[in-house]
Specification:
disordered C terminus; rod-shaped; 3-stranded antiparallel β-sheet; 18 helices
Length: 452
């Protein structure tokens, strides 16, 4: 009588050490209750000892499944290529360079002995007319790769600009490349790509189906990393082991959990909706599925012949494509490409280079400042008379505009009128001088006196 039935305990077959008996389909075949186990029974040496397997009718191994990383859409996605600390360091460095350029512009001015004002020798040029904020702005413009209107006139400013441009070039190139990677990848790749990765992280738990032979193999193997994975499962069996594949898949969808089981069952599950799971890593313990028969069964040869014929004719491939690998989740699989957020540590050398250039520029600035003070003493007939006095006067010329800005404004009409008059007189003189560029200085003074 031909009869197809399901085993009472619903298991494929485990060996019970305590009773010395087999459970499930393997147990029924060994005891003579059934003539053959027709199911996805994994071939292994322990079962082979008590019965005979046919050739594998399906190539199967062990792998694990976990939920896919969920991509998040944001209007501020363009800042993702760099970490927040790196963005803050770039902005802080830009401000530092801007302040340095502004100060360098003020410090390196020359003192005009006639007007006793500190000016640039190249009067009328854009670089000479730009003040503190003009030079600071030009340094910030470099950050967005716009061409500056002028270059710093001082040696220290040019040194800092050179190193700052190198830093901006490297940072911009790195940002552009990483932004392209973020836009190419549809969703962020998980950092877990193999069984070894599971051992070095704490975010995900992992387990197996307890009634399956795959869990038994984790307990008996001595090969790494599978032995360590088995020790973890045994130590946390109450929370990581499941009783069925369906239970394990639901656990993987709902939690940070990785399920180890047969690759065929996982391929079937992840290729169907809701398309929230993925298989990860290479296959291991690739033994395949076979039909299980009693020891020395005469039907093994006939089954092997039929399986080989089906392989040669492509029947098994068609069945695999039809029943196992569905097309429901095509296009939702994660790309193999990945991208990482660039942190401060990755570009630390660039900032060392920029700040090293600022240190070199600072040394040059000190030298330029001392030289300018010495020139003040040489050119001026009365004040300053000493280098110390020249330093004090030059420092006061830098600090006084800031102190006037912070101090309360006087509302006296006399002082206002006097200031306006002085401004008008100075403007008239500058205009007159600019219109007579070839007149000697002595004649200019006479012309100015006559105009008065």
């Amino acid at each position: 009588m031909n009869e197809l039935y399901a085993v009472a305990d619903g298991e494929y077959g485990r060996y019970r050490e305590g009773t010395g008996a087999w459970t499930g389909m393997v147990g029924d075949v060994v005891e003579g209750t059934a003539d053959i186990a027709v199911a996805i029974v994994s071939i292994n040496s322990r079962r082979q000892e008590v019965g005979d397997f046919t050739l594998p009718f399906y190539a199967n191994g062990i792998t694990f499944a976990m939920r896919k990383s969920q991509s998040t859409k944001s209007n501020w996605g363009f800042v993702r290529p760099f970490e927040g600390t790196l963005w803050a360091t770039i902005l802080m460095t830009a401000v530092a360079v801007a302040i340095f350029q502004g100060v360098a512009n003020c410090v390196t001015k020359q003192r005009d002995p006639e007007t006793e004002e500190y000016v640039h020798p190249e009067r009328g040029t854009l670089a000479a007319e730009a003040g503190f904020w003009g030079h600071a702005w030009e340094s910030l413009v470099v950050l967005v790769q716009l061409s500056p209107d002028f270059l710093p006139r001082s040696l220290s400013g040019r040194i800092v600009t050179f190193f700052w441009c190198i830093g901006v070039l490297v940072a911009t190139s790195t940002y552009t490349a990483n932004l392209a990677a973020f836009l190419t990848v549809s969703s962020a790749e998980s950092s877990i790509n193999s069984p070894e990765d599971l051992l070095t992280q704490t975010d995900y738990t992992y387990g197996a189906v307890e009634p399956y032979s795959s869990y038994t193999q984790f307990q008996t193997t001595a090969a790494e990393p599978y032995h360590s994975l088995g020790l973890y499962m045994q130590a946390n069996k109450e929370s990581v082991l499941v009783q069925s594949v369906a239970e394990g898949l639901e656990k993987a969808r709902a939690e940070n959990y990785a399920l180890f089981t047969d690759s065929a069952e996982l391929d079937y599950a992840v290729s169907r909706r809701p398309c929230t799971l993925k298989t990860v890593g290479r296959l291991f313990w690739q033994t395949g599925f076979g039909f299980f028969l009693p020891k020395d069964s005469p039907y093994v040869v006939e089954f092997n012949r039929a399986i080989l014929r089906a392989e040669e004719q492509g029947v098994t491939g068609e069945l695999d494509h039809k029943w196992i690998r569905s097309q429901e989740c095509d296009g939702s699989a994660e790309s193999s490409l990945g991208s990482e957020v660039i942190g401060l540590q990755d570009l630390l050398g660039v900032f060392v280079l920029v700040y090293g250039g600022m240190g070199l520029g600072l040394l040059a600035l000190v030298g330029e400042f001392i030289y300018a003070c010495a020139q003040d003493v040489t050119r001026s007939p009365d004040k300053p008379r000493t280098l110390r006095e020249a330093v004090a006067m030059r420092m006061w010329s830098i600090v006084s505009p800031l102190s006037n800005l912070l101090s309360p404004r006087r509302t006296s009409s006399n002082s206002t009128n006097a200031s306006n008059y002085a401004d008008c007189e100075e403007g008239f003189q500058l205009q007159f001088l600019s219109q007579t560029p070839d007149v000697p200085t002595s004649q200019r003074r006479g012309a100015s006196g006559m105009s008065e």
